[in-house]
Design a protein that fits this description.
single chain, 151 residues, mainly alpha, Arc Repressor Mutant, subunit A, two-stranded antiparallel ribbon, 7 helices, Tscrpt_reg_Rrf2
């Protein structure tokens, strides 16, 4: 799986907002805190706002804040808001693919891969990341020696 810069920046910006969820933050302060190009962040924040992940307010005390509690927003929600479905094959959803004969096993393989990604990203919330504590299931996966090996 490839995580786009857009998804990485979106999650980082959302976590920055989750640290103090009631506070409005301007894009400049979020960009500075997370070393994200501000112009790129503006478009990401618009996508997150359309998805209801962030809310915005104009004015001197304006800016962005989370649109719902951090414990109710998963990393998967953020990634989907900026990049669309978590896993596609050539731009199609895995269950919509058809393969012939020797390649028939690819369809369930791609579906299983998507389910594995969901199993991690849907079970980690912005509150988890803001508190720097991953759920035990995800922590076990990350603590595996194999997880840190490049192959």
């Amino acid at each position: 799986m490839r995580v786009s810069a857009r998804a990485d920046y979106a999650v980082r910006a959302a976590v920055e907002l989750a640290i103090d969820p009631g506070q409005h933050r301007n894009a400049e302060s979020i960009a500075q805190a997370q070393d994200i190009p501000q112009k790129f962040l503006q478009t990401i924040l618009c996508d997150l706002r359309r998805a209801g992940i962030v809310a915005s307010r104009r004015g001197i005390d304006g800016g962005y804040r989370l649109g719902q509690p951090a414990k109710e927003i998963s990393v998967a929600d953020v990634v989907r808001a900026v990049d669309g479905p978590l896993a596609t094959v050539r731009g199609e959803r895995p269950q919509d693919l058809n393969y012939a004969e020797a390649a028939e096993a690819l369809r369930p393989l791609w579906v299983a891969m998507r389910a594995s990604v969901r199993g991690v990203l849907e079970n980690v919330t912005l509150a988890d990341l803001a508190s720097r504590k991953l759920p035990a299931k995800v922590r076990r996966i990350a603590d595996s020696t194999d997880a840190w090996q490049n192959r």
